[in-house]
Every structure is written in C-alpha cells, then in structure tokens.
Write a structure and sequence with these properties.
about 180 residues; 8 helices; alpha+beta; two-stranded antiparallel ribbon; two-stranded antiparallel sheet; single chain
C-alpha cells in the first residue's frame, strides 16, 4: 500500500490541488471560514450551455441523464472548419449528404454569425454541390449581406493558390478545388 502523497489520479481526471490559504488569499475565499483553496475550474452550468450558444448545442436525455451535444448545423460548420483533418472536401461532401436531411435552414442561419464568414461560404457552396441548395438559401442571404470586396478573397480550399481558379458568384468564393460526394 502506498502513502496518499504517492497516489496518482487516473489519466482522464486532472489532479485536484488543495492548499492552505494564507494572508490575503483567505479573504478572497468564496466559502466563509474555509482554509482550503482548490484549482477546480469554473465551468458554466449545463443548462446554460444547452440553450445559450446560438443554437450550436442541444440537450439530449439518456438513461444516465442529460447530455449536451452539438446540433446538426454546428456539426456541418465543424466539418467545413476541419476538412483537412477528416480527409478533405470529398469526405466533407460525403458526410454532408447524410447530414443534409437533418439540416434546418433557419438553424444554419442562426449559427452563421458565430463562425468565420469563409466557413459559411464553403458550407453553402458544398450544399449546392450535393443538390441541397434550398437548405442553403438563408446562408446565401447572409453571405450577400456582407461586404462583397472582402468576400471575394475566400477560397474553397484555403491552402490553395487563388490566382487561376474560377469564382462562384452565388457564394462569392474562389473555387480552388472540386468536391465530389461518394455515393
């Protein structure tokens, strides 16, 4: 048996740090009369996350309790944002084909102001490419309400050289790659 000081916490939990407060630190302690200070991070309550991040989170009840997960609209934006890590634009387009039936245009529009504008342009363009243009109509209105000069510099594939590629006028996007969904 090892002494308590030598015990290690399991890998998925951060170790808690308990120290005695001294001097002025004791006055800042939220618990009156407490002589212990912890490094437990402050986290927002789950209920505020579920309803407060502009439609990017939803609460799902499970047999073990409620869980907050991202909405289909937030997932679609994440796919666009992390396209290189998940296998490229073809992989994004393939996943969007399956996810499209759960994408509500009004939910996409609610999440749009919370992400970089080029992601909205790329998502709208890919929805058009997979024959889901009606779902992207609210996004198109959002994009067209922005400054047109700044938008023309956005490329479908951010790492590509932009000089010689065609432009999509609907999405104000430089089409620097072709995305095809696998069926």
């Amino acid at each position: 048996m090892t002494p308590a000081g030598n015990c290690r916490s399991s890998g998925h939990h951060a170790p808690l740090d308990f120290r005695k407060n001294e001097g002025d630190d004791a006055a800042k302690d939220p618990v009156a009369g407490s002589k212990l200070k912890t490094n437990i991070p402050n986290r927002p309550p789950t209920a505020s996350i579920a309803g407060g991040l502009n439609g990017s989170m939803q609460r799902i009840n499970t047999p073990r309790g409620a869980v907050c997960v991202s909405t289909p609209a937030a997932k679609a934006y994440d796919l666009i944002g992390y396209e290189a890590q998940i296998g490229g634009l073809d992989a994004v387009a393939t996943i969007l084909v399956e996810l499209a039936e759960k994408l509500a245009p009004e939910k996409l529009a609610v999440v749009a102001p919370t992400v970089p504008l080029p992601r909205t342009q790329r998502l709208g363009y890919l929805l058009k490419r997979i024959d889901e243009a009606p779902r992207a109509q609210a996004l198109k209105q959002y994009v067209h309400a922005r400054d047109a000069v700044a938008l023309m510099s956005s490329a479908l594939l951010p790492a590509a050289c932009e000089a010689s590629y065609p432009r999509d006028r609907d999405w104000k996007l430089i089409v620097s790659a072709q995305a095809e969904a696998e069926t």
